[in-house]
Amino acid sequence: MGTPLESQTEQAAEVVDRLEEAYPDSTISLRYSNRLELLIAVILSAQCTDERVNKETKTLFEKYDGAEDYANAAQDELAEDLNSITYYNSKAEYIRTSCEIILEEHDGEVPDTMDELTELSGVGRKTANVVLQHGHDIVEGIVVDTHVQRLSRRLGLTEEQRPEAIEQELMELVPEGYWQQFTHLCIDHGRAICDARNPDCADCVLADICPSEKGDSEIDLASGEHW
Description:
This protein has helices at 8-22, 35-45, 50-63, 67-72, 75-81, 88-105, 114-117, 125-135, 146-154, 163-173, 179-192; strands at 219-220, 225-226. It has 227 residues and is an all-alpha fold. It folds into 2 domains: 8-26 and 143-226, Orthogonal Bundle (Endonuclease Iii, domain 2); 35-135, Endonuclease III, domain 1. A hairpin with a 4-residue loop joins strand 1 and strand 2. It is elongated and about 55 Å long. The mean pLDDT is 97.
């Protein structure tokens, strides 16, 4: 069992330092060329891998050019264009409705505030944070996806379960200059080492400070269950 540092603030800083050294090129993996494409890609990425989304959007972004194209698309046709994506019918409706709002209320431009973004169909705080950070260079919070949720609990940075509550705790612990990068570091480490079912603690750069480390710990703090 790893031994966390004395304070959660110290623990968070050490996690960032070590992961930054391990993943120096960590960044967003979704592919896009403008704000609308980013918004659509993030909507599609909910409960779906970025790899799958990138494969689908490669042709989607060639077919549809701008909010008007999506807003005027037939629901069945757009859904069929997304049929390899999880919940593609719902996501097609989210995209169409969001683009209608963007056209009617924002002059065809993706809005740049949390309140306006979360008024779009299918857009919660996580999606809005991604769009603000990578589309508008505005960092208001920390994107809490499944990797961030899992790692922050395993590493003893939070005991919260809801993403919104986790975000609030992390914003108090992680230096503000690393709010954006923290997510990408957690995603890379989650994919490479600290996966949900069988983390590779033997090769983990955080094992000695991780209270969930499988060597001695009996409990996965992410799930609260025995290893």
